[in-house]
Structure formats: structure tokens, C-alpha cells
Amino acid sequence: KQDVNGRKRPSYKATVVLGEKPTSKVVSPSNANGSGLVQNEIYPSILFHGPKFQGIKSVKISGDRLEAQCTIPSGTPAQPLALDLIFQSALILAKKNRGIASLPSNAEQIKFYKTITSDTEDFVITMSKEGGSNSDVVWKLEYSMQDVKGTVYNEGRVSIVLNDTLKY
Which parts of the sequence belong to the Polyketide synthase dehydratase domain (predicted)? Predict the structure, then answer.
């Protein structure tokens, strides 16, 4: 599309569909199996985000499944960071499973149920890769974001693009 001065501007499209509230999904992170990483291993080696966007405290990975323990750092806009943490989690899963870098590609669907605020206690992102092969260039991932009591904030499907020419 063009703006009033005739310059081309990107345009975006979203469809809002009101749905039923999901049932609680209680997650017991301490019982999660698989390899683990903590924050000081994640951000200097896998992700490059600055302190205000370092909301992942730890992750557990088992095959194509990830559980991330998250928090909102003080002074950070809560909702934008929470949504970014979904993609950060996906990038960690790809790096640990394939050993290569990836970039966010698409938020195919996000169902919002409850807003995350700066007062939100720690929360959990669970994520799993949808079918396909680990060698695929595009990964589609289902995720859920909930508090430790099982209240779901949002859930949906995102995709990332893996590329072995990207450098960290």
C-alpha cells in the first residue's frame, strides 16, 4: 500500500476470532526430562537480546519439546516481551536440535486469553515442533503460555526459518 505521500508502506493483516477459554494446563517444570540450560548460558551463546529482553530464566528440552521458565524483567513492557519470548524459545529449540541459527518467520495463530502485565509472576512456555523432519528449513511449532497454576495466557502456532549460513 502507499501512504499519503505516495511512498510504499508494508501492510499487515490479522483476523480476530473470539473463542472459548481453554482449560488449565498445569505444568510441573521440575519433573521435565531432557537437557537444561539457564539464563547465563542462553543469552551469550544462543540469543543476542539485551538485558530488558532476557526473560527466559531456564529451559528444558526433550526431543522436539521445550519448556521455558520465564519472567518479565523490571521496567520492560510486559506484553511485547512475552510475545517475543515465544520466538526466543523457538530459536533455542532449533539451535539445540540442529546446531544452526534461525529467524522468526510467522505467527500463524495466537489465541489471547489473559493479559500479561509487569506484575505477572513467573510463567511457563511449553512448545513442540509439529511433524516434519528436523532437517526441514521451516519449522512450525505449537505453544502455550501459562502461569505455574495452569492459567493459560495465550496459545498458538508460530514458524521459524532455519539457515546454516546465519552466524551467531
Answer: 42-115
Give the predicted TM-score (pTM) of the model: 0.81
- What is the span of the domain harbouring residue 85? 35-163
- For residue 50, being part of any structural domain is answered with yes
Residue pair 34/65 in contact by the 8 Å Cβ criterion: yes
CA pseudo-torsion sign 149, 42, 75, 22: negative
Rounded to an integer, what distance in angstroms lies between the CA atom of residue 86 and that of residue 97? Answer: 17
pLDDT of 44-53, one tens digit each? 788 888 888 8
Q: In CATH, what number is assigned to the domain containing residue 71?
A: 3.10.129.120
| Beta strand residue intervals within 31-100, DSSP E | 35-38, 56-62, 65-70
Judged by DSSP in three states, 133 sits in coil
